[in-house]
Amino acid sequence: MADLINCPVCGTENPSDQEYCRSCQAALAATEEGDASSIQPGQSPTKRQTAELEPILPQWLRDARDAARSTEPEDSNQAMPPQSEKTRPIASEDLLAGLQSQSGQDEDEDVPDWLANITGAQPKPKVEQQPETTGARWVEMGARDDFPSEDAAEEADMPDWLAGLQATQAQPEKDELTDIYNLTRSVNESLPTQPPAQEVPPEAAPHDFASSETPEWLRQMALDADERSATAEAGEQSAELPLDAPDWLSGLGGPGSESTFGESSAEVSEPAPAESEALDLPPSDMPDWLRGSAESEKPAQDTTPKWLREESGGASEPETPAWLASEDTVYLPSEPQQETPEQDALLVDLPDWLKAAAPNSSIFEQPAEQPTSLQETPEPSFDSPDWIKSLGATEASEDVPAADEEKSSPFENAPAFTPDLEGDENLSSLFTEMPDWLSNAIEPTETPSSSASSAPTPITSDDALAPSDLPSWVQAMRPVETGIVQPSLSSDRTLESRGALAGLQGVLPAVPGFAPTSKPKAISIKLNTNEEQLKHAGILEQILAAETSPVPMESYAALRTSRGLRWVLGFLMVVMIAVVLGLRMENFSTPLLAPNETRAAMSLVDALPPNAALLVAVDYEASRAGEMEVAVAPMFDQLMLVKQPRLTFVSTNEVGSMLAERIITGPLAEHNVSYVNLGYLSGGQMGIRAFVKDPVAAAPLSTSLQPAWESTTLTGISQFDQFSAVILITDNAEAARSWIEQTEDVRGSMPFIVISSAQATPMIMPYYDSGQVTGVVSGLYGGAIFEQYIGQPGSARTYWDAYSIGMLFALILVLGGGFWNLVLGWRERAAARGAE
Amino acid sequence: MRVFTAVIAIAFGLLVLLGYFLPPTLFPTVVDLQTVLLNWAVILTGVAALVGIFNLIIVHTDKVRRAEKGSVYSALLVLSMLFTFAAGMLLRPDHVAMQRVVLSGIILPVEAALMGLLVVSLLYAAIRLLRRRADAMGIFFILTAVVIFLGSATLPFGDIPVISTWIRPWVTQVLALGGARGILIGVALGTLMTGLRVLFAMDRPYGGK
To answer: Which of A72, A727, B192, B197 could staple B203 via S-S, CB 3.0–4.6 A?
Structure first.
């Protein structure tokens, strides 16, 4: 059993002379050497020193590290083997790394906010740009003790395709990235190597390969490279690399040091298998950009951008884009004087936004010459982004896979991480997760850089891209300068102490100019006016007041009541009429022209049968009794004389029954009148209608409280239509209308005579014209005509002279008085206009 | 309750309205029902007149009791009403005493005197009209009154030529008749609309909205 070795990956027992596991093809060398960095199942990860990572760590983490460092022995650093004296030319492939160095030269260039927000980087001071002592970026992630769960968590969080990518780095395929690295290597070889003064002393180099912090697989690859370099010619490195690694990956060894490449034959073989493994991955597990790069490995699908190929100096083989090899930026020496003039020239031409990315890479540009100063002068406090944290975890995960063994079945044989670390997977992943694209981009070159060369390579002119060669998508990403100086968010270190943003720093930057710079200027509200303006304002105010004031309506001047004139008029009228009546004057002729309605009434009286039952409706007021009795007397005299009718009186007026009795006892006193007074008929129109419909029920008794319909006058009369005629005596047009309208449908062809006052006649005439009324006798004028018709002068003739004189006197007064008042009115109005 | 009253009003209105259009021989029940309803209305109107008279007595009696200003006239009114009521109930309206005392002695002279004062007032207004309103309508009103005065009066030798024989008849039979007919048509339309609104319960003079 002593000759058997357990595979660190699958645990299969292999012979001790077996280099790779027969089951999973994992490298067994690390196991044989018993490297502490190689994590065995059940083995705790060893402590590693990550001084270079410290600047990017958050303040709280650095504090924790400082506290831990103070109690931690430093013997672990001494175990690290010295790294290569020369820096690796990692920046040659890393476009951003070149910009980093450029940005380090140009301190005036600010990091764009958008990039600063993404990377969390900020401009670094000059002192930070020290030569990096080692190119191993995994060292930056700190020792394993500092991040006890990072390796395990990152291993667990790492996608399968990425794990496979790491395990199959040794696949000797050739692709664009390989060519780029080869080209870069050839260029960097021409660059001057790091001066001996910049070499890191062994005790000061925290990232020595010999130290316990060096991953096992890296050291294994370094040993393999040594073996290969011993058996192969030194000048035929490029010829040897295709066997195990692509050319571009071999170039990761660092053009700055030939010896580094000479011993990096093993580690440079990692990227190629990784990429080839990426081709085997399902497309869904691979980012688009990486998928594209993987597809570019196919000869027929060379999709390497033209600008990248041009950057390679006209090399026939495609070159890995510098951004894809961004992991090399960690090895970029930040000292400007270490860069070649060509490199400076190219960097100057780089866009600013790419230069602004410098802080992201500058954190890895720890100069190898001053490793201690880096620890003594830590970076300004800023939070380390997650992808930086996860960078260390991915490096730790690189220890596990073996290149050749993982090529067959990387997913099946990929062992889990140490069991004790798996328990902290979820917790540690919060701090160690790194974007897949970044971890994948870092991984292919991480291994060779860590094993082959430890010194960063100065940037050459070939590393940077000319602005004119930038791809369109890169140009599209360039921020447009608007001329407005935006304050750097990263410069705001305000720590939110409350609210939803409590605990966050620099989230709400205080933008200069937003806050008031001075007390608001007090503005006086007093108008600055002169006398003339005030005068005009007063005039305007008067105009407005006049507009709003109510305008009195134009009305006629109130005339004072002329009580004397009234007395004079009344006196004259009374005296004149009294004199005429007292004198019994009959000088004025009665009217000779009889109107048609009066003649129709005369004809009707003549047409009535003798002893006819006549219904007489008395509906006039006592005030009009003089006029109405004069109009009624001639016709009833004629009727009494000729026809001897039976009269039935009814009234809708309260005094109508008494007025009816007055007619009987007055003008008709000389006649033996047979009549029945039914009295007052209440209800107005409804009473008339009820009487018309059923007279017996509506007025059963006479005014003497006797049964009216049983009297001799109403013998044979029980219905309204049994009356021979209806005579309406009224001075009211409404009463006439009610009687006419309510009796029309019942009376049929029954004669209907209306004796009305002169005032109501015009309103009754329409019914006469329409035939609803047979004849009309109008007032004194009609009575006078009827008297003339019967040839018996009566009261009408007695009153006619007084009536005529009074009409003429009124005419004179109206004409004379009207004209006089008209003149007075004109004078008054003229005087009023003159006064205005 | 409002619906109930509206239904009653509409139903009674329709029944009375049908009594005007349906012949009594064919629809004697409808006509009889209309007559009954009209008699009820006549009785209610008479009762309402009595209620009004009693209310008038109460109001003026209260004024006399509180000795308000003009309470003497109120007392005279109440006494006159009671006297007339008693005389009418005892003597009846056709009695000679009632005719001479109440009608010929009080009612006719008082109301005739008011009509005489009206004549003086109208004459005074006609004289002062042009002083206040000397426009065409005022002048036309005065001229129309003058023409009617001349046409209604006669001269010792008879009617005033042209005015009494042509102008006055034309004014009274054409202008006045046209105006009067228009007024009557307007009244008829108003009465019709009022009746229809009551029948459709749009107007509820009996109460309710």
So the answer is: B197
DSSP state at residue B23 = -
Average of per-residue pLDDT values in chain A: 66
Domain with A648 in it: what CATH number?
Answer: 3.40.50.720
When scoring B127, B165, B194 by the number of chain A Cβ atoms within 10 A, the one with the most, hence best to mutate, is: B127
Residue A326: phi and psi, rounded to 5, are -65, -15
* Residues of chain B with C-beta less than 8 angstroms from the C-beta of A661: 93-94, 99
Q: What is the DSSP letter of B166?
A: I
Mean pLDDT of the A246-256 span: 47
pLDDT band at A89 (very low <50, low <70, confident <90, very high): very low
DSSP assignment, residue A773? S
Residues 6+ apart with CB under 8 A from A226: A263
**From the CA of B67, how many Å to the nearest CA of chain A?**
31
Quick check: is A82 in a domain? yes
Calculated CA dihedral for residues A163, A164, A165, A167, nearest 10 degrees: 90
Nearest Cβ partner for A684 among B45, B115, B165? B45
CB-CB contact of A759 with B119 (8 Å): no
pLDDT of residue A650: 93
Q: DSSP label at B102?
A: I
Alpha helices in A158-195 (DSSP H): 160-167, 176-189
Average pLDDT of span A38-61: 62
Distance in angstroms (rounded) separating the CA atoms of residues A69 and A62: 10
Domains of chain B by residue range: 1-91, 92-132, 133-209
The dihedral sign for the CA sequence A552, A556, A557, A562: negative
For A810-816, what is the mean pLDDT?
90
The DSSP line for A430-485 is HHH---HHHHHHHHHHHHHHHHT--EEPPP-TTTS--GGG--HHHHHHSPPP-S--
Share of chain A above pLDDT 90, in %: 10
Cβ-based neighbour number of residue A676 at 10 Å: 25
Task: Note the pLDDT tens digit of each residue in A167-190.
Answer: 444 444 445 555 566 665 655 555
Residue A415 resides in a domain:
yes
Q: Is the pLDDT of residue A117 over 50?
A: yes
Q: What's the predicted TM-score (pTM) here?
A: 0.49
What's the number of domains chain A is made of? 2
CA separation (Å) from A333 to A55, A83, A104, A554? 16, 15, 10, 104
What DSSP assignment string belongs to A775-813? EEEEHHHHHHHHHHHHT---HHHHHHHHHHHHHHHHHHH
DSSP H helices, A90-172, are: 95-105, 113-119, 150-157, 160-167
Evaluate whether residue A500 is within a structural domain.
Answer: no
Chain A residues with beta carbon closer than 8 angstroms to that of B43: 682
Q: Read off the pLDDT band of A539 (50, 70, 90).
A: very high
> Are residues A252 and A268 in contact, defined by beta-carbon separation less than 8 angstroms?
yes
More confident residue, B51 or A427: B51
Give the domain range for residue A282. 4-476
Question: Which among A624, A689, A821 is the nearest to B130, CB-wise?
Answer: A821
Is residue A543 domain-resident?
no
Q: What ipTM was estimated for this complex?
A: 0.86
Selecting from A569, A745, A821 the residue whose C-beta is nearest the C-beta of B120 gives A569
**The predicted structure's pLDDT at residue A226:** 66
pLDDT score for B88: 85
Q: Do A456 and A597 sit in the same domain of this protein?
A: no
Question: How far apart, in Å, are the Cα atoms of B1 and each of B5, B143, B201, B208?
Answer: 6, 58, 14, 9
